[in-house]
Design brief:
single chain; 285 residues; alpha+beta; Fumarylacetoacetate hydrolase, domain 2; 2 domains; 12-stranded mixed β-sheet; 5-stranded mixed β-sheet; 16% helix; globular
């Protein structure tokens, strides 16, 4: 299934994509069972029921008639991974660490598919970072590596937009990584049953139609099972938690001349088996 969170007429809900351009409103049907958000659905035993509803139901609305919001609008945590592709480590002049480099984003820093990513007024260094997002579907603590993928609810595209000069204010990344409206998450979550091996995906980032990043996920330094095992040793992973797995080489900061996102641009992150996350860029009002 492809699962989305959305707004329609000011009301929030979630659903499953039907065909190429429709949505079956699962929130309307399952909300009476207490499953009012996609995060709550992932933490329940109702995914099979959701599949059955999708199979027997006509679309309630068109994708074009809703506003897609971040796949999980209300995650308990968003854990981002830095320096997780060797070509990116090399371009920034760092060395790969033995353990993954982690930092956090806040939910308020995210927008959904087709929604504008906002270039902050305080910086001209708004950089793209195409990444694969892993969404946890089953709670776990101290998860064994060989059981890690059993805890995945699904996968999505992520653009981990970064404000490079603010990122370099200190050795801590947070100030450059969680500006309002700078990260994009979508267009939907593809459930894990449709992607049995997340190490066999192709990721591409495009800026105004020009390819700026290209990789395959088997090149991750710390694999998805290892990331899940490592993060779950720190604290319990909960349904709806998001692990953003890292960006490959080709970031705008390290190009000659640097290539930053600016108002009027269109940025896309495409991952095979998932789809295309597309966002315009606007200036902060």
């Amino acid at each position: 299934m492809k699962l989305v969170s959305f707004l329609r007429d000011g009301k929030s809900s979630y659903g499953a994509v039907k065909g190429d351009d429709g949505i079956v409103d699962l929130g309307e049907r399952l909300g009476r069972h207490g499953l009012r958000t996609l995060r709550q659905l992932l933490g329940s035993a109702a995914l099979d029921e959701a599949n059955a509803i999708l199979a027997r139901s006509a679309a309630d609305m068109a994708l074009a008639d809703v506003v897609l919001v971040p796949v999980i609008p209300d995650p308990d945590k968003i854990i981002c991974v830095g320096m997780n592709y060797h070509d990116h480590v090399a371009e920034v002049g760092r060395t790969a660490t033995e353990k993954p480099s982690l930092f956090a984003r806040f939910a308020g820093s995210q927008v959904g598919h087709l929604q504008p990513m906002i270039k902050p007024a305080v910086s001209e260094q708004f950089d793209y970072e195409g990444e694969l997002a892993v969404v946890i579907g089953r709670e776990g603590r101290h998860i064994a590596r060989d059981e890690a993928l059993e805890h995945v609810g699904g996968y999505a595209c992520y653009n981990e937009g970064s404000i490079r000069d603010w990122q370099r204010h200190t050795t801590q990344f947070l100030s450059g990584k969680t500006f309002h409206g700078t990260g994009a998450f979508g267009p939907w979550l593809v459930t894990a049953d449709e992607i049995p091996d997340p190490s066999k995906l192709t990721l591409e980032t495009r800026l105004n139609g020009q390819q700026v990043q290209h990789t395959t996920t088997d090149k991750l330094i710390t694999s998805i099972p290892d990331l899940i095992a490592y993060c779950s040793a720190i604290l319990p992973l909960l349904p709806g938690d998001v692990i953003v797995t890292g960006t490959p080489g080709g970031v705008g900061l390290k190009r000659t001349p640097p290539l930053f996102m600016k108002p009027g641009d269109i940025v896309e992150v495409e991952i095979s088996g998932i789809g295309v996350l597309r966002n315009p860029v606007i200036a902060e009002d």
